[in-house]
Amino acid sequence: MPLQTNDPNRKSWIGYSSDSHFPIQNIPFGVFLTRDNVITIGTRIGDWAIDLGALQEMGYFDGVPLTDDMFMQDTLNDFISDGKKTWRLVRNRIGDIFDSENPLLRDNKEHRNRIIFNMDEVEMQLPVLIGDYTDFYSSKEHATNVGTMFRDPDNALLPNWLHMPVAYHGRSSTIIPSGIPIHRPQGQTITAGSEQPVFGPSKLVDFELEMAFITTDANNMGQPISVDEAEDYIFGMVVFNDWSARDIQKWEYVPLGPFLAKNFASSISPWIVTLDALEPFRTSGPDMEKPVLDYLKSSNDKTYDIHLEVDITPQQGKPTTICKSNFKHLYWNMSQQLAHHTINGCRVNSGDMMGSGTISGPKPDSYGSMLELSWRGERPVQLNDGTERKFINDFDTVTMRGYCKNGPVRIGFGEVSNQLLPVYEPKSKH
Amino acid sequence: MPLQTNDPNRKSWIGYSSDSHFPIQNIPFGVFLTRDNVITIGTRIGDWAIDLGALQEMGYFDGVPLTDDMFMQDTLNDFISDGKKTWRLVRNRIGDIFDSENPLLRDNKEHRNRIIFNMDEVEMQLPVLIGDYTDFYSSKEHATNVGTMFRDPDNALLPNWLHMPVAYHGRSSTIIPSGIPIHRPQGQTITAGSEQPVFGPSKLVDFELEMAFITTDANNMGQPISVDEAEDYIFGMVVFNDWSARDIQKWEYVPLGPFLAKNFASSISPWIVTLDALEPFRTSGPDMEKPVLDYLKSSNDKTYDIHLEVDITPQQGKPTTICKSNFKHLYWNMSQQLAHHTINGCRVNSGDMMGSGTISGPKPDSYGSMLELSWRGERPVQLNDGTERKFINDFDTVTMRGYCKNGPVRIGFGEVSNQLLPVYEPKSKH
């Protein structure tokens, strides 16, 4: 990869503060609605959204092999299908166009006015049509916490956990971008000791701090992807809130796994940050504690040092940061996850999304869910307005942020932030 | 609904035998590739595929409110989005066009040649882009058999089973139409008593006899669908083989449910039969054995009398019918399934597919999987070539059929038939 695009010394003629998540070294991809009500594919520098459809139309991508309407679409799926070589050519070209030394667009006011929007003027959309969504369960700390609470502290991890990245399928239709409020789900729950379930609003709505990666078309049915080639099929990553209803989950999930406890909503940060942008933050994950089967053997540098934070903001209140974790804590890396997912021949398509599972770290303030932070409600979490939370209240907003930093440049994901509304009431009842 | 379309006395000017699954009273919807390599939406009468795109272009749907290219598409999703009123208008019009008394197309040889293809000339495609696929677990006999084998015969059903239609999310990307061969999956399995899993081809590949229904856009996020309105959102049904690898399943599925044991392949019959065509076969299902919560209360006539059969055909051998079951055995009906799926506000889209779960009946020859038919391999199933099967062998073809019959008219689904090939070998290894 040309180092220039990731060079920490590169500056842009678009200004931004030193703590921006979106310096010229990032160049994420997303989809937004412009002030003219047009949907386009774009990128972001500082607080400015850049219309890649308009850029392409004006010839700024000439020489890059792209179909004519590649960026005038409402999802990134076709672009992602073009593969890693094309992603790099486009990202490098964008870096060049916005380099402080390049006058081409910098000095063309008419073009700038058609291409660049303030972030306040655009509305971020879901960046991909997600065909299939899979959620892993790859944090050893999280699996251990859950096993300790609900099963046996001495055998918290189930027997398969250290042998495979355990996963299950989730629901694509309810994945939404940051900003869209969700409703508290209703459903069946049961009181301990009772045999008769009751119906009503979930009393234990929770978040799960996760990240997710988006794939390209990776394989034909029947054909596995190896650990070594897996990163070639990962377009990029987002921060992901896998909303959960713990009381619904507890009653429904044996034997086939979580269903209604999860599929009422899942939300993602709207900018997909490429693996190329994350390359300077590559780091090592935990060592494997047990030998793994050959198809899961991986070098130990296939993860990234990504700081993660979660805030709760009560209605008309101020945010309290209640969790600080890091993506690098995960026991199983993305390459192992993708190799495991396809070892049976399962097909992976452009736009598929794979969640990490809750990312809990080793310390109590790094746990990635209210279930763990409040330890099943036994240790309520204090907010800075004097109130406390065991789980999420109606009208609370949950905000997750992710960013990398190990020098002058910060590469960030922005945030995924969604408010929890009360149970949906049909209008006729008002 | 105009009775004429379902009138058993109606004849078509297209000839077919009395045991055809596709009389003029059926009028299913599918997608096929014609001899001219064009993909179109179509229907079927007898052994003839009918190009609805060509029919529309020639004006045969004039007066029916449809966009111009409604049937010149490679999936039914947009048509399904148009809703039940439009499905009925189109199905009724098709019945009229092919009625033996209607000379309009019957006597126009040029039009007939452009519209009607022999089934041998076309290649059936997946009829819908399946956004999300959910699999229920709604046969009490199946759940009881599995619980008896693997848990406790005296408490075979888990505590939640009689209170809700238990379900989990499956993988859309590997749903294929009848006719496409699949590869035996590889994966991790473990020997009883061992702590170390091994890697290799699954030794226990199985089928699951299911049916599935296809939905239209049903709701916004947060808004449940009631049992009473659920049928309005069901476009139609297919026969469904939920291929399974029992040894992979056993090791991976606790606590988050089946994953690689299922997502290597699932196959469906290619013609979607509408609920309107099934209306004459509406029947009652089993009584609820325990009171259910209000949102699951249903009149007892929301199921259909659909005969189901499974054949195994060894390579170059003849088929043996090893299972005869019926859709009406299911404890939970489709309306209850859809109401449960959305009670938490989960959004359902056009083209989503929901499987019934294995449809086992009360008698041992009505069990819907090899696991149950051979009772974990203890009672091998005899084939008519003198061989026996505990599970599915390489090169075996599994064929499932479904049809309704309670008078002179048979309404059928055709079949879903797929061969199991050995584990995929990369070409470079040959």
Mind sketching the topology for me?
The structure is a homodimer of 430-residue chains.
Chain A: H1 3-6, E1 30-33, E2 39-45, E3 48-51, H2 52-57, H3 77-81, H4 84-97, H5 103-106, H6 109-115, E4 116-118, E5 123-124, E6 133-136, H7 140-150, E7 167-169, E8 175-177, E9 182-183, E10 186-189, E11 198-201, E12 205-206, E13 209-215, E14 234-241, E15 244-245, H8 246-252, E16 266-268, E17 273-274, H9 275-278, E18 282-283, E19 303-304, E20 307-313, E21 320-326, H10 334-342, E22 353-355, H11 370-373, E23 381-382, E24 388-389, E25 397-405, E26 410-421
Parallel strand pairs in A: 6-22, 8-16, 9-26
Antiparallel strand pairs in A: 1-2, 1-5, 2-3, 3-4, 6-7, 10-11, 12-15, 13-14, 13-22, 14-16, 14-17, 18-19, 20-21, 20-25, 23-24, 25-26
In short:
Helix content of chain A is 17%, strand content 26%. The first copy, chain A, is built from 11 helices and 26 strands.
Describe the structure.
2 copies of one chain form a homodimer. Chain A has 430 residues and is α+β, with helices and mostly antiparallel strands. Chain A has 2 domains: 3-124, Fumarylacetoacetase, N-terminal domain (SH3 type barrels), CATH 2.30.30; 133-423, Fumarylacetoacetase-like, C-terminal domain (Fumarylacetoacetate hydrolase, domain 2, Alpha-Beta Complex). Helices cover 17% and strands 26% of the residues of chain A. The first copy, chain A, contains 11 helices and 26 strands. Chain A has helices spanning 3-6, 52-57, 77-81, 84-97, 103-106, 109-115, 140-150, 246-252, 275-278, 334-342, 370-373; strands spanning 30-33, 39-45, 48-51, 116-118, 123-124, 133-136, 167-169, 175-177, 182-183, 186-189, 198-201, 205-206, 209-215, 234-241, 244-245, 266-268, 273-274, 282-283, 303-304, 307-313, 320-326, 353-355, 381-382, 388-389, 397-405, 410-421. The longest helix of chain A has 14 residues, at 84-97. The radius of gyration of chain A is 22 Å and the shape is globular. The model of chain A has no long low-confidence stretch (mean pLDDT 96).
